[in-house]
Amino acid sequence: MSFYHKPPTHVDVLIVGGGPAGSYAASVLALEGIDVALLESSKFPRYHIGESLLPSVRNYLRFIGAEEKIKKHGFTYKPGGAIRFNQHKKEAYTDFVAIGQENSSWNVVRSEFDQILLDHAKSCGASVFEETKVTSISFSKEDPNRPVSASWRHCPEIKTENARNTSGTITFKHLIDASGRAGIMSTRYLNNRQFNRSLKNVAVWGYWKNVSSYGLGTPRTGAPYFEALMDESGWAWFIPINNGSTSIGLVRNQQMFNEEGKNFIYDPSEITFKAQAVPNPSNSTSTNRYISALSKLAPGIVKLITENGYMVEGSVKSASDYSYSAPNYAGPGFRIAGDAGAFIDPFFSSGVHIAFTSAMSAAVSVSASIRGHCSEEEAADWHTKRFSISYTRFQIVVLSAYKQLRSQKLDVLSDVDEDNFDRAFAFIRPVIQGSMDMGTRLYESELQNSMDFCVKLFNDTDPHEHDIIASNLNLNNGSSGKGPGLVGIGKELLDLTAPIMDKSVLERAIKVAGGDTGNTNIESDPTAAQEPNTTTATGNNGNGESEEATLARNVLEKINARRVLHSEYTLSGLETEVIDGFGVSLERGNLGLARAVIG
Known about the structure:
InterPro entries: FAD-bd, FAD/NAD-bd_sf, Flavin-dep_Halogenase_NPB. The chain is of the alpha+beta class.
């Protein structure tokens, strides 16, 4: 018989939730020797959606010593990602490994991934208590905004005599709420969750077996594939994962989805899959709608399913009202991290990345407060701004993609916080605005221009094309570049770590590359996915430019757009980006905040 070990009556830092944010924060703090207890309501492993990871997670995993555990587990190798914004154009492919094999990522079974992270938190020294649900938070009588204790209840999946009706209270100095979408602090006590109207979508997904793979037999094998739906209501995903199944889902505008549902009639004769491929013995309406929409609206994914693919019976799930944020993610004695505070959208797979960055921010700011690096008020404010900056950068990138997917101008001004935008995009506002002085107020036109800038991140390029541009600009063999106006900045043109380039500099480089009379024939990409095409997703074909100039534009504008998120991808970005006069100290044993030296 297994016995339940109760949580302690007091701990320095209590973490609610054992998902990626909670496990990561627990690992970071425990490695600093800080007394940490984590309470998780479920028994791991448990199911969770969100199988595709960004390359940035490797840097964060490495910091806590978990990267090798993930590498050795056998998750599906992810070399990049493909997105078809328009059914009449070629998909755009982002090659993660173009800048090194260590920049690859994984598609994962989240129950397995999350289990590894939770176990790792234990190995780092955190006290972890599963099947332990936090039922309420109590606040200080002297400071009603400061949480000081939590009531918990043991909720085992399998009832045992000794575990029945076990409950208790734990006091703490600091609380990190990583309770997922439930968001106990935001939804129950702060009441400050705000939903994004422009991303008010419904996601429906299921799991399939025996399907094909995007880029099968090429270096792109394992890459997720995304495509715009035929009716412009959203997009679909195709993500191979390591248990032999493939996650296939649709994200659709909620209003369009609901209207369609009023008159929905399932007609099996319209379904392009074989009858045995879509088992639905209970005749579930949600499953029928999923099958019907997939068949009619996602032709690229239907081809990847092939005639041998079949859906796992009973695997269809759905979610809505999942795009949200909050004006504050911290206060006296508490921090909020991961989905407990904010979530953008499944597109671009930013969920685990933001879970890690916000968890790191929570841990850093708590440690800074404990160690006296700053006041608790300063630490809490810093965390809110750090979380908001990361969220806003990814939010604009995701919105830029939706602008393409829906082929329309998005009304997003009400969803983007002006102060957060200013902090997150201050470094590109001069590039967006040019010489025009728009002042400090955020305008709809500036948001639209920012999205137009960021969407170039999805330009379709490959390493061979990057090499061609380097050659055309004479950037190989240690050269600093050629061409009028490019002296001294040539190497930076292809460097993701360089500052964002002014448009005039890029235009000069594009002209130099386009005017090169050398051999710039581009052979067909052997890794291209299954359907031939002659244009790029966001290229400028048909505008009078030479092929060489268009190629240079795609490559250089993509690199420039990727710089928007590059600081998010590295831990050094946390150290160098100063917020309210503080940078991050990642020194082991002295984790916290350091006052920036000015001058």
